[in-house]
Design a protein that fits this description.
Strand content of chain A: 15-25%
Number of strands of chain B: 10
Shape of chain A: elongated
Distance between the termini of chain A: 32 Å
Shape of chain B: globular
Strand order of the largest sheet of chain B: 6-7-8-3-9-10
Number of domains of chain A: 2
Radius of gyration of chain B: 18 Å
Oligomer: heterodimer
Largest sheet of chain A: 6 strands, mixed, barrel
CATH topology of one domain in chain B: Rossmann fold
Structural class of chain B: alpha/beta
CATH superfamily of one domain in chain B: P-loop containing nucleotide triphosphate hydrolases
Strand content of chain B: 25-35%
Number of helices of chain B: 8
Chain lengths: 386, 249
């Protein structure tokens, strides 16, 4: 305990009496923090943009067309498959999901959107936070997500105009917004939900498809009676329903085109920034220890233990790093307030928390060499007595 | 007769030299220093006096022989006990880089008390008193960088004495001072050693500083070649008289 207080005394006195020098290092750490947190937020934002809808599905399994490699866009299921899936033992409910992209043109700036279709009150349709569900059939009604509302200002009760290229013609459809769901971004675009029959009528499609009015779902979201029986139900589905492949939500997310590549790129950037942080902090503290060799020699010669000297160095690094991360976190928060919603930054993810923990660890990690060096300094050589 | 604070018995320190072979930096040296006695260790460069001081400071282990500080045999102590001994039984002043640069004069002195678990109000009052005695009452809250070399040395002396060590070691304490300051520092040092009943050993190449010591130990080629105890002889030596010539020879 005496060693701890002695080390604390030395560490704090040196920081207080050399505020400028240590603040400079804290500011460098703050800039690294800013960069790391932005990369983390970008990673989280991009991930959300890609996976938000799939990740929040009220389902445990996803049914794809056989050999579609769990790629939603490549999967197109027979319309009878949904009934077969619902009959399988262990399946509590199943809902078809239809995906396409479109554009809201009744705005000053047209807004590109994901246009998804799902059945109300079935897996695949998110919970409403405002308004009511759309009616069935070819109802010209839509439920929008918060992303659409935030970017366009569209509210429940408004009418929106959708442009869709069908064959070689642009067709325009009017939909009444009847409900609002939370953010459900898919393929980096905010989302609107429409009834399946409306979707089939409105979706962009080649001329050859126009004569067929049957909507074919891309996937089926399957909710299990007992989520613990996921493997068993998966086997039953594969055995009892023809021409399908089945996987869980996580695999579905990882197979969203570009998702894994994008995430590994962002994570690599984050890791390299942390590595640069380790080198910068390590370099600074190593130079500092080199400058303090005689001082450490005196401390040891007059009876300070290696433990006290080493612990003082560790405490300094922790304090300087914590101040830097605190400043960096504050700056990141201030900057984040000024970013428009179109930039995919999400600061509330576990990724940001992990980034902060990693940033707090890079200090002691970077300073490790200098701490070992400080502990190994021999007073005899430091004081040039030997 | 006061107690023996430091006892050196047949100490040898051998170093390997490049190209093979060994050299005895300290060669069978024996002496004693009593509490309240101030001793100068003199000799030309390479005579072994700094090596001897390092051994006395428990910073260097002798190849042979024994060093006893306050009755404790250094050769029987492990590293952590040697650190403890340095903290409790030894006071230091060095040639330069003496003080912790980010602590004020009083904090530097108090640090020895802090190391020994005695940094309380009474301790702080004692350190302020000691610094005042050394003419530094207006410098208590100055950092080393704000003080002259002489003032820094006086702070170092206060630090070396504040925790009542058995032995006080000074390595060339006047090396970076002008003559007037050097006399002042050594005289103050000597007075405090005598008053507090500590054993003081000062390594110096400046024979003029010997005028304040009780005994002069002269080393040459690692051996203790002469011990001057006679006050008159020490006075002559300090004035650069006959004894100086003897030492130079």
């Amino acid at each position: 305990m005496k060693t701890f207080f002695l080390a604390f005394y030395l560490a704090i006195k040196e920081i207080v009496r050399n505020k400028g020098r240590f603040l400079l290092v804290s500011l460098v750490i703050a800039l690294i923090t800013l960069l790391v947190l932005f990369i983390a937020a970008l990673g989280e934002g991009l991930a959300d943009g890609n996976r938000q809808y799939v990740a929040s599905l009220d389902a445990q399994l996803v049914v794809f067309l056989e050999k579609s490699d769990y790629n939603i866009s490549a999967s197109r299921l027979d319309s009878n498959t949904i009934r077969a899936v619902r009959r399988v033992e262990g399946v509590a409910d199943a809902g078809p999901v239809y995906t396409s992209t479109s554009e809201i043109v009744s705005l000053n700036e047209p807004l590109k959107i994901s246009m998804l279709a799902a059945e109300s009150d079935r897996p695949g349709m998110p919970l409403l936070i405002e308004g009511r569900p759309f009616r069935g059939g070819e109802a010209s009604e839509a439920v929008i997500d918060e992303g659409v509302a935030l970017r366009s200002g569209i509210k429940v009760g408004d009418e929106i105009e959708i442009r869709s290229t069908q064959g070689t013609q642009d067709e325009f459809f009017y939909l009444k917004v009847v409900g609002l769901v939370g953010k459900q971004s898919y393929f980096f675009q905010p989302t609107i939900f429409v009834p399946p029959a409306t979707w089939e009528k409105m979706r962009p499609q080649p001329a050859a498809d126009l004569s067929d009015t049957t909507p074919y779902p891309n996937i089926i979201a399957v909710k299990l009676a007992d989520p613990a029986q996921i493997e068993l139900v998966k086997e039953r589905l594969l055995a009892q329903v023809p021409n399908i492949e089945v996987t869980d939500i996580e695999t579905t997310i990882n197979n969203i085109p570009g998702y894994s590549a994008q995430q590994s790129t962002v994570q690599t950037q984050g890791a390299f920034t942390l590595l640069i942080g380790i080198l910068v902090i390590g370099g600074f503290f190593q130079i500092q220890v080199l400058q303090k060799v005689p001082q450490i020699g005196v401390l040891k010669a007059i009876g300070s233990s290696n433990g006290a000297v080493g612990l003082a160095a560790v405490m300094q690094i922790i304090v300087v790093t914590a101040i830097g991360v605190g400043i960096g976190g504050g700056l990141t928060y201030l900057f984040s307030l000024g970013f428009p919603p179109t930039i995919p930054l999400t600061f509330n993810g576990t990724r940001s928390l992990l980034a902060v923990i990693a940033l707090l660890l890079i200090g002691p990690l970077g300073g490790m060499v200098s701490i070992i060096y400080a502990v190994r300094i021999e007073p005899l050589k430091a004081l040039k007595l030997g | 007769m006061s107690a023996i604070a430091l006892e050196v018995r047949n100490v040898i320190k051998t170093f390997s030299i490049e190209g093979g072979g060994t050299i005895n930096a300290v060669d069978d040296v024996s002496f004693e220093v009593r509490s309240g006695e101030f001793v100068a260790l003199v000799g030309p460069s390479g005579s072994g006096k700094t090596t001897m001081l390092s051994i006395l400071a428990a910073l260097l282990t002798p190849t042979g022989g024994q060093v006893l500080i306050d009755g404790q045999d250094l050769s029987r102590l492990n590293e952590s006990k040697r650190v403890k001994l340095r903290r409790q039984k030894i006071g230091f002043t060095f040639q330069s880089n003496n003080l912790i640069p980010f602590l004020t004069a009083q904090e530097n002195v108090d640090f020895m008390l802090r190391l020994n678990g005695g940094a309380n109000k009474a301790g702080r009052m004692r350190s302020a008193e000691l610094l005042s005695r050394l003419g530094l009452s207006d410098r208590l809250h100055n950092l080393p960088g704000q003080m002259s070399g002489g003032q820094q040395q006086r702070v170092a002396i206060a630090r070396a004495l504040i925790h009542n060590p058995a032995v006080v070691l000074a390595d060339e304490p006047t090396a970076s001072l002008d003559t007037e300051r050097a006399y002042q520092v050594v005289q103050t040092f000597a007075n405090l050693i005598h008053e507090n009943g500590r054993a003081g050993i000062m390594v110096t190449h400046d024979l003029r500083m010997c005028k304040y010591v009780d005994r002069v130990l002269q080393m040459r080629d690692g051996k203790l070649v002469q011990v001057i105890e006679d006050k008159c002889e020490i006075e002559i030596l300090a004035r650069g008289g006959l004894a100086t010539e003897t030492i130079k020879q």
